[in-house]
Design a protein that fits this description.
Elements (H helix, E strand, L loop, with lengths): L18 H12 L4 H11 L6 H29 L4 H6 L3 H7 L24 H23 L5 H31 L3
């Protein structure tokens, strides 16, 4: 169905440790507007789209969201690389460390684990595409807020790329919704 290229969509090479930013990035890893939720939402919704246009688009965007999970995870890991237990404690990451050491776990910055409740699927293309457009807007806003929290160009570059992909996804979902609204006029 698709080819995995062993390369990130955007290069990530963060030079400076920043445990606070790593913690904040968990919002887009396992948070309610994060990439894992978006991927699961779109890949689940695709099966109830009325034709191949919707199935294809939701598959494409859903799998791209998985690539974004990979990017965010890479950023977090580079930001906490070689962090001591004292540093983890200082930035409120001790609970994550106790359960997962330096590994990733799908949760938000407060330690709330990812839940399938974050994914919205109704089986109705109108509701689902409206939800998808809103999800992309929430993710865009979260990326913009994250960008306000740093001045590190090694972090800003990938965040800007991810923010722009949310804008593109929103436009693609809107195009599909408008296409269906025209095709299925009642």
């Amino acid at each position: 169905m698709w080819k995995y290229v062993k390369k990130l969509e955007y290069p990530i090479n963060i030079q400076n440790k920043d445990l606070n930013m790593a913690k904040l990035l968990y919002a887009q890893y396992g948070g309610p507007s994060g990439e894992i939720g978006a991927a699961m939402q779109y890949l689940n919704q695709r099966v109830s789209m009325p034709d191949h246009h919707g199935v294809t688009l939701l598959t494409d965007i859903g799998t791209e969201e998985l690539a974004h999970v990979e990017m965010i995870g890479t950023m977090i890991m580079q930001l906490i690389k070689d962090a001591s237990v004292d540093e983890l404690k200082k930035y409120g990451l001790e609970n994550m460390f106790i359960l997962h050491d330096h590994a990733l776990f799908p949760e938000d910055p407060n330690g709330e684990p990812f839940t399938a409740v974050y994914t919205k699927t109704t089986g109705d293309w109108r509701s689902d595409l409206e939800s998808d457009m809103a999800a992309e807007q929430r993710a865009r806003t979260t990326y913009e807020n994250l960008m306000k929290m740093t001045n590190d160009p090694d972090i800003l570059g990938p965040l800007s790329f991810l923010r722009q992909r949310e804008v593109v996804h929103y436009a693609r979902f809107k195009e599909l919704r408008d296409y269906y609204l025209d095709k299925y006029k009642k």
